[in-house]
């Protein structure tokens, strides 16, 4: 061994120091000490976190909810409503904005300042503030004067023309503001629109009198994008009896006419939602029993809470559900003060009373919101326009509704029913169900059917 190695080696006999051996032991000791210090720091930090967590959970568990860390809604009802509507925005069953354009701007969509302050209940800023994710644009025209129309509804009254103009108005406004609105034709379209941060825009025809006694017109409305037809307005028509307004009017057909049963069959076949708002109790009952698809009330409240003809009685509500002898459906509560409470008494709480009652009778999965904004002259206190939906959600949260029930109310329930009607239509069409070509039997403009 060379002499160069000698100083690095230690000999017991010589008493010389082994530097390599001693230095490696020193380094290992340093590493052990460093690791011990790291472990001590980690355990100290974990201990502090544990203590803080225990204190936080014991002293202020609500802070987790209020900051959205627990998955629960915040304790504060107003904050909870905002949080809920961020993920489950309102889908309103009935807004009469096209009517405002008809009478306020003579249908001139180019002049309508929807991105500014509108004079009634609806504009883009307030829709955004109210956390609206979608609504049915009501393409409504009023009932004809009975003397003009004739007892068999045969005289021309321009109702189909005027309905087409209302459809044109709605589509024109949707197209005018593409960053805000998205035209929707299906339940999936609605979900897609909401996911893109837009307001899903669907069309509904508010009354069978707008069909011109023709099932063919029904099909053409569907082709134009209409997705519900209300069987009646405040007048009887060739298809069905109306409830009237505040007081029930004498029946004509005692429910559906034979032609009305055929109308419902074709609505089911093409996927048009059957809307029972405005209908008489007999019409509603017969329609529920005859329809193969789920039904809706686009803007109706509970008669047991406020006794007017336009509201839905408990015996009809009891037919709504998923049990034996029931039909799936959704009753979308109307905000019109005269349907909600005695004069001067309508407010957020009384609207919530109607929602609670329908939920009690039919179940929370069968109630929704159908405000009738822009179609009513006054509003409940606290629900003055479309920006105020959060106040209603906050009130129901105070009453114990959980986030899943509230999400159903705001839009989930109507989407389920819509999807159900779409499925029935697919099934009927797949089965080869024939198109309904029946003609109103009182028409005089077509030849009498002859046997060939």
From TrEMBL:
Q: Indicate yes or no for the key word Transport.
A: no
Q: Which CDD domains match?
A: rDP_like
Top enzyme category: hydrolase
Q: Where is this region: Disordered?
A: 1-22
Origin: domain of life: Eukaryota
Alphabetical list of PROSITE patterns matching this protein: RENAL_DIPEPTIDASE_1 (PS00869), RENAL_DIPEPTIDASE_2 (PS51365)
Short name of one Pfam family? Peptidase_M19
Q: Which GO terms describe its biological process?
A: proteolysis
Could you list the residue ranges that cross the membrane?
A: 41-60
Which named protein is this?
Dipeptidase
Species source reads: Paxillus rubicundulus Ve08.2h10
